[in-house]
């Protein structure tokens, strides 16, 4: 009898341990530890900019007919219509406030070229609602969300014209010097596959075109270093809230150069100063400049400064 009780007790303990382990796994998964890394999100009054995922969302609210004269179905349809219209107005406002660089936002360039503003309105007009996020409140109010990509058509429209298409960069080898293959891995360091800027602990505002400067104020990454095709599709850089998430990232590859952001430059809080030593490593050869052309840059920040 005691032996049966002992076996039963062992079985129950194993079941409890398995259940607890399973619950822990589910909690970790739902909290994002097993999924995508924490995103850099800039919250707005009626929406948000997710700089990690490259998406912009806006919220709209449509209230029911307060006169009570409309039929329930008609009132619901009208509330949904007004919610979508409200969301798109909020989306336009958010888009106009997006920082292009440390001293300009979309509204600045749209004010100089009204065709840009017209095209932004056209993009927003064609934006569809995220229907699975729609909410119907008990009082008849409808809440909707609309979303567009930060990159692609919108970036093509607003990125500075100075970002041009860059032809392939050919590494320059001095004469009478062996190639990397001939020299072997032991004598020639492996080329960097990307750049990770650790900007944690400094005040920073994400922008479409941030710059990296050395301690003398010389630009070492900016519009002149990236090719437009990559900047339009992927952004000139990516932003992450987790330093660990940059390891083995597809964007920066398996051998990125890690540098530390010392502080930001100017009042825009988007340009980052790194040490002269790190700057020299970054610009050490034309082969390393290949990943700058392809926008293989990640910036790690705590959270966007207000």
Question: Which labels suit this protein?
Answer:
2 domains, 33% helix, five-stranded antiparallel beta sheet, 306 residues, alpha/beta, elongated, 12 strands
In short:
The chain has nine helices and twelve strands.
Structure description:
It is a single chain. 33% of the residues lie in helices and 19% in strands. With 306 residues, it is of the alpha/beta class. It folds into 2 domains: 116 residues, no CATH class; 142 residues, no CATH class. Helix 2 packs antiparallel against helix 4 and helix 3 crosses helix 4. The chain starts with a helix and ends in a 6-residue tail after the last strand.
Order of helices and strands: HEEEHHHEEHHEEEHEEEHHE
Shape estimate: elongated
End-to-end Cα distance, whole Å, is: 69 Å
Instruction: Count structural domains.
Output: 2
The largest sheet is: 7 strands, mixed
- Estimated helix fraction: 25-40%
β-strand amount: 15-25%
Rg calc: 26 Å
Number of DSSP strand runs? 12
Uncertain segments = 4-8, 14-36, 169-188
Distinct helical segment count: 9
| Averaged pLDDT | 82
Global structural class: alpha/beta
| Major sheet strand order | 8-7-11-10-6-12-9
């Amino acid at each position: 009898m005691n032996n049966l009780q002992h076996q039963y007790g062992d079985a129950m303990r194993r079941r409890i341990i398995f259940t607890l382990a399973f619950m822990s796994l589910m909690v970790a998964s739902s909290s994002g530890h097993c999924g995508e890394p924490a995103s850099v999100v800039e919250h707005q009054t009626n929406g948000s900019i997710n700089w990690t995922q490259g998406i912009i969302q806006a919220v709209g609210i449509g209230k029911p007919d307060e006169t009570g004269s409309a039929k329930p179905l008609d009132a619901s349809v009208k509330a949904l219509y007004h919610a979508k219209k409200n969301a798109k107005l909020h989306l336009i406002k958010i888009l106009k406030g997006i920082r292009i660089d440390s001293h300009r936002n979309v509204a600045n360039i749209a004010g100089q070229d009204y065709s840009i503003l017209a095209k932004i309105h056209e993009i927003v007009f064609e934006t569809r609602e995220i229907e699975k996020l729609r909410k119907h409140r008990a009082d008849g109010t409808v809440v909707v969300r609309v979303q567009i990509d930060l990159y692609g058509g919108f970036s093509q429209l607003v990125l500075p014209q100075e970002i041009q298409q860059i032809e392939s960069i050919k590494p320059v080898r001095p004469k009478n010097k062996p190639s990397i293959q001939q020299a072997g891995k032991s004598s020639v360091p492996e080329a960097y596959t990307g750049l990770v800027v650790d900007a944690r602990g400094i005040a920073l505002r994400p922008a479409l075109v941030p710059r990296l400067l050395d301690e003398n104020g010389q630009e070492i990454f900016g519009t002149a270093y990236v090719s437009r095709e990559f900047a339009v599709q992927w952004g000139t850089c990516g932003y992450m809230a987790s330093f660990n998430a940059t390891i083995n990232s597809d964007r920066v590859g398996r051998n990125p150069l890690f540098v530390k952001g010392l502080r930001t430059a100017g009042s825009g809080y988007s340009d980052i100063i790194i040490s002269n030593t790190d700057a020299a490593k970054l610009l050490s050869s034309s082969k390393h400049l290949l990943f700058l052309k392809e926008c293989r840059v990640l910036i790690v920040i705590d959270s966007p400064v207000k």
